[in-house]
Amino acid sequence: MSVQPDHVPALPQPPAPTAAAQLLTRILSHRRAAQWGPAFGRDWVKALEDSRTTYILTPLHEVVRTWQMRLDTAPAVEAFTASGLDDEDGVDLDQALGAR
Question: Which of the four pLDDT bands, split at 50, 70 and 90, describes residue 77?
Fold first, then answer.
């Protein structure tokens, strides 16, 4: 007899088809657009290549989710760094935001 989980965790909803374009607009209007625009582009190209080889859209969805979280948390991060508090110990993004 094999043990089966009594429930399967729900998968996150995939982003809307226009989510990447909307996200890029948000990134390019941010004050850090010069750094974040190319970084998003690199992440997107890598995810696109992964998706082409595997026929799975998950890498593209992960890029959109990750960058949405980065943009949503940017004001809090900027406020923290501007406050002058000690940040030498650092906090992992996954630890702060939880499972994606």
Answer: confident
